[in-house]
Amino acid sequence: MIWKPNVTVAAVIERQGKFLLVEEETAAGIRLNQPAGHLEDGEKLIDAAIRETLEETAYVFTPEAMSGIYRLPVPEKDLTYLRFAFIGTVEEQPLTGYQLDKGIIRALWLTKEEVMLNQSKLRSHLVLTCIEDYLAGHRYPLSILRD
């Protein structure tokens, strides 16, 4: 068997001390996550982050930097995820009338403290880790990507 990690992207978006998250239905119940999802065949990482943010929040995302690349092993599922986290901004308002992805309940803005109070509802610990890295000033230029 050939080991192959699953590549995902996530958008870390902060506005006035609050972070854009999504509330989504998962096999483990309702969870909170950054706008995030899988890289599609032939897609560039930046384009995937823009697409996933739009599909899950109806906001148009403009990536400005990366906060990091994260590895998340899930031994019970025999999976490993590689998460590319992008920092950026969104338009002031979401697109009106946009249909969110199936399973997405809503987009919401939460402070870091509110995220910490809801740790048991996070899709993974990487949600908080990405926020902490953003707040710590982790910034890497988009030019590091060669896709």
Automatic annotation (TrEMBL):
Listed Gene3D superfamilies: Nucleoside Triphosphate Pyrophosphohydrolase
Enzyme Commission number(s) from the entry: 3.6.1.-
Protein keywords: Hydrolase, Magnesium
CC cofactor: Mg(2+)
Keyword check for Membrane: no
Pfam family, any one: NUDIX
GO MF term list: hydrolase activity
Root EC class: hydrolase
Family: Belongs to the Nudix hydrolase family. NudJ subfamily.
Oligomeric form and interacting partners: Monomer.
Protein name (record): Phosphatase NudJ
